[in-house]
Structure formats: structure tokens, C-alpha cells
Write a structure and sequence with these properties.
Elements: E1 6-12, H1 21-26, E2 36-40, E3 46-56, E4 59-64, H2 67-73, E5 81-87, E6 92-99
Parallel strand pairs: 2-6
Antiparallel strand pairs: 1-5, 2-3, 3-4, 5-6
Amino acid sequence: MQTVSFIEFTKVAENRLRLPCAVSDHLCLSVDNLHEVSVKNLRCEVTNIKTLAEKDGDVYRYGFSKWSRFLKSNQIPIGATLFFKYVKSSQLLMLTKVVHKTTKKRGRA
């Protein structure tokens, strides 16, 4: 049986980013174990970003602290679609592609 060595997912750029459960589980994130995650941008620069926990009903969801700072420093607008690949062996989260949202300017004042 072959084990999957990475997890791919997409997110729409917002001021905060919640990690998929499969990624936060693999990182062993918990309220008592919040640590930095290495995130590689499109220019292959790696930034360590602190994680945070948000209570969602009875469960916790995990995301990044100061995510909007990462978006700004990489000129990623809110609403763009972000493609990620999380590499399990290195625990590296790679941004692999950014698709900018197309806006149609017609008939809106």
C-alpha cells in the first residue's frame, strides 16, 4: 500500500486562512501545541508563520496568525484562488499557484 506523501488543497484568499483538518492533524496541532509552519511562496521564499486555534462549536480549527501580512507581502489580492501543496515529509506548505479573481465591470455604479 502506498502512502500519500502530500496533501493538495485550494483556498480563496481572505484575511485569515484555516488549514484543512488533514493538514492540521498531520502537524499535530492542538490548543496546547501551536507552532510555526513553514510556508513557501511562489518565489520559493520560505516564511515561518505562527498557528492559532479558533473554537468552532465543539471543535477547534487551526489557521495562521497574521495571514494577511503574508498575502500583502506576496501581492495576493483578497478573492484570489490559492493552490497549496503540503509536503508531509518536510511539513512544508507550498503555495503552488495563484489565480486572480476576474471582475466584470458592466452596469454597476
